[in-house]
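Thread: protoporphyrin IX containing FE complex, take 2
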Amino acid sequence: MTVILAPAPPDSDLKPVEGSTTNGVIQILRMRRDPFAFAAAQQAEFGNVSFINAFGQRIVTCRGPVAADQILMNKQKAFANGPAWNFFIGPFFNRGVMLLDFDEHRHHRLILQQAFTPPVLKGYMQAMQPIIAERIKQFPVGDVKLFSEFKALTLDVALEVFMGLELPQAEANRINKAFIETVRASTSIVRKPVPGGRWRKGLRSRKILEEFMMSHIPAKRAAQTPDLFSVLCHAESEEGHRFTDEDVVNHMIFVLMAAHDTSTMTMTQMAYHMAKSPEWQRRAREQSLELGPDLAYDDLSKLTDIDLIMKESLRMCAPVPGQPRMAVKDTEVMGHFIPKGAIVSVPGLTNHYDTEYWKEPFTFDPERFTPERAEDKSHRMAWHPFGGGVHKCIGLYFGQLEIKTIMHHLLRGFEWSVPDDYVMPMDYSALPVPKDKLPVKVRRV
Ligand code: HEM
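Output below.
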């Protein structure tokens, strides 16, 4: 049965947001089974703006680039991140920059930006290059689960490049474990600290991370080193503001999380498509072999095939599938009345399949991103895997340089394949991940 979210004010031309009374559990299960079919059915029934029942509340899904632009650019300051994201990740990523809003967000973002300027990125890349080269030399051959390999590799890179600490193995394992449990907790179904549950482990692990980071702050403040931890301890905005110790800890924990799964998933998608389309794998390998092993920051732009493959992989599977916001005042999206307090969501995952902007969206076709075709430029929010507006991903260049560097080394040393009829089974219950961890056959080239 169709119902409305809230009646539009009588003196307005706005339409109410519609949705169905279908039980939330059923809707979530349908969405997880096939988010694309679910989105298409919802759009056919209710149009671009409608609500779904999920997690015990009504969430207004606003489809398409026009709605994405309105919400993410947020010109009327009608939408806030904190109250919406808090529901999903609040206790574990407390006061991360993505959970802050308006003036407070701006204050933190301006300082944080100092850690992602081109000269600082060059420093991270120099630190990362030998670690990645060394790790890829030892990459396993034969039957390999690529998702697990990428996850372990990006975690090692993150701990060294972000933390800049040489830890005894037992301590590194303890911190890795705490980090993994903190991230896992945000996807737990039971959202209470019951004994043995993910939520409780997540809270305990967050505490371990806080204490660990806090204990290293005096040394990090005392000396300047090229890792993110040290950069955050010394960063100063143009207005002369700096982070407190608590800020540094909160941002470090959030950034570690924001960087890790997103990059892992992008590489997994790229590797999958290159296994399914060996011609693209060959093309990308040729470019990497031509460039030589030592990749400099300025060489990244020469990896044009890896770049096309990455963009298309991010289109076909946006690692952050939706961006939630809460309306902080009565407002509208595409002519629909959104009452104060409503949760809205910009569905990045399914927006990238809109046939108005993308030709045959279910086909892997990296050349759609070439300047000649430029489908991504058909609307400024047609392609938005990194979000948009003031909360646009601050690590988008870092992420791309890490992904490209890893892929460059991998392609130079190895080739990989899957059986012709293999289709990667996806789990869309939280961030999209392969249920089978992407098993491939790896050979040295
Ligand atoms: C391919 C990899 C990545 C993807 C697809 C991605 C995607 C996103 C998206 C969609 C948002 C916006 C969320 C929203 O508006 O609600 C975001 C925010 C953010 N990302 Fe990324 N991200 C990636 C890698 C990284 C990396 C490597 C870092 C750090 C080194 C990072 C740090 C952040 C931070 C700090 C924010 C919050 C920014 C703010 O609120 O001001 N991300 N990311």
